[in-house]
Amino acid sequence: MKKWLQKTLVITVALLTFGLITPNHEIWDNLDNGQSNNGSEGTNVASNTTEPTSTLVEDSFSNLETIDTPDIEPILVAAKEQSYIKFGSRIAPVISNEFENRIYPKLEEVIELTLSGLDGDSFKYLAISNQPSGEYNEKIFNISDGTSGKDLIRFHVRTEKRPQDGYYYNFHYHTSEDNFIAHHSLGEIYWSKNTPPKWLS
């Protein structure tokens, strides 16, 4: 069999089955060696390929759960983007290293944990707010159910003034599980003894 036809068939099977069924290479070996699929030899080739193919299909279907896992990467990217919008051009350069190293990994973990409990349909309609609050308000972003509009989790940062120490940014989140009452801490970043600029500035 010509190589281009063989490659075309392999690619077609891969595309049509999304990689769930891989072609049995014994077929190609027999065709390359010039064996025909007529007569009893052809029957043997067909009977030999039936069993491994069904095994491959069963193995592939047993792994479907991992293939269909929702991708939360777009939500994580949007979360980081909204955080930097909140910081603005005056705060971001000062706290970005600590935010990236200490706060954001915990924020990612909380998002992954919260969203892992959702079914596929709920996950499709998730929404992330796209307007952090300014001035000295706390809101960074909320993740909500896009169909009902109800928030699932809210991420905030509070500016705290501590006598003798100065100003700190306290990053925390609230969940719908306790009706957004409890503060769950993600960590703190020290600003300085000087009054920090307003958010979004």
Structure description:
49% of the residues lie in helices and 19% in strands. It folds into two domains: 3-66, no CATH class; 72-190, no CATH class. It has 201 residues and is α+β, with helices and mostly antiparallel strands. A hairpin with a 5-residue loop joins strand 2 and strand 3 (151-162).
Largest beta-sheet characterization: 5 strands, antiparallel
Report the C-alpha radius of gyration, rounded.
28 Å
Structural class: alpha+beta
Number of helices: 6
Average of the residue pLDDT scores: 78
- Tell me the overall shape: elongated
- Poorly predicted runs are 36-67
Identify the strand order in the major beta sheet.
1-2-3-4-5
Termini gap: 68 Å
DSSP helix fraction: 40-55%
How many discrete structural domains? 2
Write the element-wise H/E pattern from the N-terminal end onward: HHHHHHEEEEE
Strand content: 15-25%
**Number of DSSP E strands:** 5
Task: List the keywords.
6 helices, single chain, alpha+beta, 201 residues, 5-stranded antiparallel beta sheet
